[in-house]
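Bug #77: duplicate submission created two jobs. Keeping one. Sequence:
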Amino acid sequence: MMDTTAPGITFDSEGTCSFCDVHDRMETAFPLGETGRETVRQQADEMRRAGRNRRYDCVVGLSGGRDSTYTLWYCVTQLKLRPLAVHFNDGFGNPVAGENMVRTCQRLGVELRTITSDWRESKDLKIAFLKASVPDMEEGTDLGIATALYGVAAKEGIRHLIIGQSFRTEGIAPLSWNFLDGRYLRAVHKQFGTVPLRRWQPADPGFNLGVKEIFYYAFVRRIKTVTLLYHLDYVRTEVDEILVRELAWKSPGAHYSDDLYQSLIYYLNRIKFNIDRRLFNYSALVRSGQMSREVALHRISSVNSIEDDSVIALCIKRLGLTRAEFDAIVAAPAKTFHDYPNNYALLKLLRGPIRLMSRLNLIPESAYDKYFNCGT
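Kept job's structure:
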C-alpha cells in the first residue's frame, strides 16, 4: 500500500518496499502464539516484582479507543496486574471515548487519573504547528501523552509504562510525517508560539521531552516502556467483540477518532501535504493478514470518513481561529521537521544506544526503526 508519497521509501527488485521490510523484520523479532504469550507472562512477572509493596504495578495509557482499552482489559483480567490508568486531556477528546474510559475503569476496578494540559499551552502549541506548516501538527499532544505517563510513573515510583500500540495494526508512520522530538517542539514554539511553556519537573514534565529527559526517566528512574500488543494475537474484529461484551465499549468512529483533532489533521494532511495516513495503517493490516489489499485499495479511493466538516469547524473554532486564518495556513508552503532546529543529527550519532534502549524496553521497541528505517 505504501507509495512514493512517503519520503525516503525504497523498493527492491521484486517491488517490496522498505516499510514492508521493516514490518517483516519486526514480525520475526516479535513472534506470536505461545512464544509471544510467554514473553508477556515474563513481562508481567517483572512488573509484579517491581511493584511489590507498592500500590500499582504499572501505568497504562488510556484513550478510550480500541487499542488502549483492550490493553487495560488484558492487563487486569488476563495478567492480574494492578495498573493505574492515565489519560492525557488536551481539550479535544471525543465524548464517546471519554465515556468508554470511565465505564471501563469502573468495571475493571482501576483508578483513572486524567492529566489535563494547561489549555493555553496546548492551544498555543497546536496553532504554532499549524503556522509551522508541517504535517506532524499533533506534536504537542504526542509528546504530552508521553510526558503524562512518565510524570505519573515518576510521581508514584512506578517502573513500567504500558502503551496500547501494535505495529501489526497501526504500522509505523514515515519519519517526516511524524517526527517526535522535544527540541523540534521547542523550536517551532519559539518561532510561532506566544504562551511560555512551563519548565520541566520530573513529576510534572508539561510538554518537555528531549534527549536529557528521556535519559532521566530511562536510566535514573529506570522506567521501562512495554508494548504488550507486539506479542499478542491482536485481531481487531475479535477484540471488538470482547470489548463490547465485557465492557459495553462503543466505537468512537474511525480509527483515531478518540481524538477529535484527528479530523482536522487528516483533512490538512490530504489537501496540503498529499498525505493519506491510512497508507501505513492499512499496509500493516494487509501485511498481518487482517485486511485484503483489494479492500484497502477500495477504501483509500475515497476520502477518510474521519474528515467530518462539522468536527473540523469545531476544531478551528476551539482554537480561536477564523476560517480565513485557517485557509491562510492551508495555503502556506508545506514544510517538514527538517526546516526547523531538531535533534535528528544527534539521534543519528546515538543510533547504537537507541537500538540497545529499544531492545531493553527503555523506550518503545519500534523507536529504532522509526528513526532510522522509515524514510527521511
